[in-house]
Amino acid sequence: MQEKRSLLHTMFPANLENTLSMLELQARLIDLSHDAIIVCDPARRIYTWNRGAEQLYGWTEEEARGQITHNLLLAELPVPLSQIEQQLESEGQWEGELIHTCRDGQRIIVESRWVLERDAQGKPLAIMEVNRDVTARKQMEIEQEERVRLAMNAAQAGMWEWNTITNRMEWTEQCKALFGLPVETVMSYDLFLSKVHPDDRERVSQEVQRSLKDHYLYESEYRVIWPDGSIHWLTSRGRASYDEQGDALGMLGIVHDITERKRLERILSQSEIEIQSLRNSSIIGIVSADKDYVLEANDAFLAMVGYTREDMQQKRINWSQMTPPEYLSLDQHGLQELLEYGVCTPFEKAYYRKDGSIVPILIGATLLQREPLQWVCFILDITERKRVEEALIRSEQHFKTLAEHIPDVVARFDNNLRYLYVNPAIAEFAGRPPEIFIGKTNEEVGMPTYILGTWNAAVRQVFTTQQPTTFEITFPTSIGMRSMQASLTPELDEQGNVLSVLAVSREVTELRDKQERLQHALDALLTVAEVLVSDLADTPLDEPKTMRREVAKSILAPVCEVLTCAGGVMNIFTAESEIFEEVITVGFNPEIERIIQKRVGGLPLAARMPESMIQQLRAGESIEMDLRLPPYQERQPLPHLEYALVVPMRYKARLFGLITLYPVNSAQRYSKNEIALAAAIGKLAALLIERENILYEREEAKSNALAALEANRRMDEFLGIVSHELRTPLTSIRGNIQLAARRVMMLLQPEGGRDEPRSETVLVVEKLLQRADRQVGVQNRLVNDLLDVSRIHADRLELHPELCDIWQIVREVVEDQRQVMTARTIRLEGQPWEALVFADADRVAQVISNYLSNALKYSETTQPVEVRVERLTSSVRISVQDWGPGLSAEMQERVWERFYRVPGIMVKSGSGVGLGLGLHICKTIIERHGGSVGVMSRPGQGSTFWFTLPLAEHEAV
């Protein structure tokens, strides 16, 4: 005690005997306390260190006396020490939780209270610190919070609390995760509402306010939008608390993800009664149980197993009795895991319902207490999921059945580009059985390097972009060049991630050869079209016959190639008679050509055919002839030719000549569409001859103005007939294609109205029909262009202007193109405004559509196309910008000319077939509206095509 007094005199040099006596009395009382009580001077040097402090921290009073408390105990403070001292000075006390380190190195949590003692003059005298060890209690709180968190995570649920006075919300990490928010997000009620889907936001707000006002349970289902744009379904429940006056203080609730449930509802299309029942109930069963019985359960669980609340209260729901025997081992394993770790990993099992039926469920549990044993379970009915899984298994089996019986190669790749599956067709294509490929990459199975790079890049692209793609590869073989087409499709998991890539490959060498032959035929038709619509004044009088022979041969040759002919003969009659004047041949050697010329030249048609056949030809009918019958047997150009198709060259009920086609294969017979194509060629040839006659008539009528007008009238009529005769067979073909497509859809109609997976072969047929329909559409567009340019040349292009909104026209054209070109990005720039113009809306839409089609056709599929609408002083300017190859200065001037096609520019998408009339027609249409057109471009930097139209308000002025 004398030592303490000496220390006190050192610490408090003033005469403080009375104070010391009082503190010594307090110290004796302090030693009786179980709490750690420490008395320090204002500099925090320890004076008193009671037995409670010795027991808690491990230092004796002698060892602690004179030391600085926060240095000795390595104190971790919740706020800076200066802030605590400031509070002591102003308020005389401070309370809080500290972390101290004991002598043995153990860290403990203490509840600490500091009191500042002052002398009679109010100067700081001493600080008394009372510390109570709360480490065990804090640990229990943490464990309890962790159990609750684990239970909520097991149920994939989040918990939230809302202070309605401050508008602040406290959310668990799981709750924020369900909204796609980072953990550090500071929540509020307004932020919560902003994440709710706009279509659900008003309803959810009303439900919350109604539950607060009427004092009932808040329950709602709604969609939320994550920062990545994805949409998720959530269900939320909450109950409010109120003060004595009935005013809401806050609300506590739980939220659960029901996106999977909503997906199952859409996939399985359950009956309205089942859907309504599911909406009106919770899908999660929550159960409190002991070792044997269910002690407490919500209505969802009771409905799930068919028991009543009375059954539960009478302890009639026994775990082991309601569990099928095959799942008892899973229950035991789950119980052991529960006792060892405090939680049970969710697992699938089943229960017997009260009626004896079985319900499959997913169960997760967390331990509440060990003695007596009690835990809480979260149970989800997975009946629908099981049904979907079984449906998926059946679908996969159906897929394999189809894949193993089609000639195309079907393969599935994982994200490491390894084969997961390949059908037996690979054996014929690669010469090795399917099992060789499984688990290996294309490089490991020896795919040639000239294919490997393109193939792997395409598969990686699908994994990255999540978009399907199609590509072709042409490669050399011992028998020549071969072409292969591959279609790659992403297979997505439930979260929308690419799980695998499905590849369907087929050899298209023969198809490519046919397409090339068809392209040659189309090129020939375009040549004929150019000749037919060219200016008659530009053709010298002494050249038409020479041109006629060249053009006739240029269309006869590709037609023979497309229809696989051994040869073809075109016989042209003399004017106003049916005597063979000219004979044009394709496919025969010079000697055979001379023989044909000698046999036919100068003879009348009646000498070659009976009158019945001649009448058919005069009526415009094509004739199939058996060359094995007399008298045709002796007239065969070659001995092996057994069949011929004779097509009339007829115009305005007049026969101008015949085309005879000889197929290579003696067993070959032409289809209706092929005969229609040949008949169309015959009409075109007749039109060529009529054009020659018009040329001569024009020359004769030069001195007669009326005759010249009549010739022009006939030329206009002639051009109209050209477009009509080109359109007629195309209309028939398109009708047949659409009829075939409808019949395919009818064959695909499943029994019972259920959707069934379509075979790959059927999908290929659908795609081919769609492609054929698009090709016919292209030809129709060419015919329309031909008709328009003929009207323009004759100054007969009709416009029907009316007051319309150019913004609306542009928006509709852009939306139409977006639906057709779903893989392309088309941006509409500019703020919408009322842009009124006097214009023919259909013709202006035709110009915008032509601009857009060209931009999409000649730019990469990965590049966007931008459409802008800009207001100028007295007009509106519409422009279409692409990032294609661009145009040189010369090309920019010539691109508006009739029949001009820019050389050397590759088509990136769509059809490359065109007459070079589109931009010429666009220019005429806009200029007829009082506007202007133009293009801004640099080679390699894309092009911007634009046009202007006067605004209606300025035209009125």
Give me some keywords for this one.
alpha+beta, 43% helix, 5-stranded antiparallel sheet, 31 helices, 957 residues, 6-stranded antiparallel sheet, 33 strands
Q: Could you describe the 3D structure shown?
A:
The chain is of the alpha+beta class and 957 residues long. The protein contains 31 helices and 33 strands. The chain is elongated, with a radius of gyration of 45 Å.
Ordered list of secondary-structure elements with their pairings:
Elements: H1 2-11, H2 17-30, E1 36-40, E2 46-49, H3 51-57, H4 61-64, H5 69-72, H6 81-91, E3 93-101, E4 107-118, E5 124-133, H7 135-154, E6 157-163, E7 168-171, H8 173-178, E8 187-188, H9 189-195, H10 198-214, E9 218-225, E10 231-242, E11 248-257, H11 259-268, H12 272-279, E12 284-289, E13 294-297, H13 299-305, H14 309-313, H15 319-322, H16 328-341, E14 343-352, E15 358-369, E16 374-381, H17 383-403, E17 409-413, E18 419-422, H18 425-430, H19 449-465, E19 469-477, E20 480-492, E21 498-507, H20 509-533, H21 544-562, E22 565-573, E23 580-586, H22 590-600, H23 611-618, E24 623-626, E25 643-651, E26 654-663, H24 672-700, H25 705-748, H26 760-793, E27 802-805, H27 806-820, E28 826-829, E29 836-839, H28 841-857, E30 865-871, E31 875-882, H29 889-894, H30 918-928, E32 932-937, E33 943-950, H31 952-956
Parallel strand pairs: 28-30
Antiparallel strand pairs: 1-2, 1-5, 3-4, 4-5, 6-7, 6-11, 7-8, 9-10, 10-11, 12-13, 12-16, 14-15, 15-16, 17-18, 17-21, 19-20, 20-21, 22-23, 22-26, 24-25, 25-26, 27-29, 30-31, 31-33, 32-33
Helix pairs in contact: 20-21, 20-24, 21-24, 24-25, 25-26, 26-30, 27-28, 28-30
